[in-house]
Amino acid sequence: MSQENPFLELFQKQKVHQFKIGNTSHKERIAKLKRLQNALEKTYKQDIREALYQDFKKPHLETDLTEIYPVVDEIKFAISNLKSWLKHEKVATPVSLLGSSSYIVNEPKGVCLIISPWNYPINLTFAPLVSAIAGGNTVILKPSEMTPNTSKLMAKIVSDVFEENEIALVEGEVETASALLELPFNHIFFTGSPAVGKIVMKAASKNLTSVTLELGGKSPAIIDDSSNLEKAVQKIVYGKCTNAGQTCIAPDYVLIQESLKPDFIKLFKKEIQAFYSENPESSDSYSRIVNSKHFERLTNSLEDAKQKGSVIESGGRTNASDCYIEPTLVSGLPEDATLMQEEIFGPILPLKTYKTIEEAVDYVNSNEKPLALYIFSKKNKVVDYVIQNTRAGSTCVNHNLLQFLNHNLPFGGSNNSGIGKSHGIFGFREFTNQRSVLKQHTIGAVDLLIPPYNNWKQKLVDLTIKWF
Question: Which of 25, 147, 299, 374 is close enough to 221 for a disulfide, judged by CB 3.0 to 4.6 Å?
Answer without folding.
Answer: 374
